[in-house]
Amino acid sequence: MSTTKNFTVEGMHCQGCVNAVTAEVSGVDGVENVDVDLDSGRLSVTGADVDDAAVRAAVDEAGYQVR
Q: What DSSP string runs through the chain?
């Protein structure tokens, strides 16, 4: 069963930032869909058994922080 989790990402300021976060989070085990809204800083991740810590680590790897 898929669930959607929402996070707030700090530090994004352009489409390149969105692309970097999307690429990193898409590689997390169980992630089926990633939606990043630049204006609100909202990151929505849909998938089965997605680990919050893994999503946070992926955002960190992209160079941003989850608030």
A: --EEEEEEEES--SHHHHHHHHHHHHTSTTEEEEEEETTTTEEEEEESS--HHHHHHHHHHHT-EE-
Task: Tell me the C-alpha distance between 35 and 51, whole Å.
Answer: 17
Q: Which CATH class is domain 3-66?
A: alpha beta
What pTM did the predictor assign?
A: 0.95
Enclosing H/E stretch for 34: strand 31-37
**pLDDT tens-digit profile of 31-50?**
999 999 999 999 999 999 99
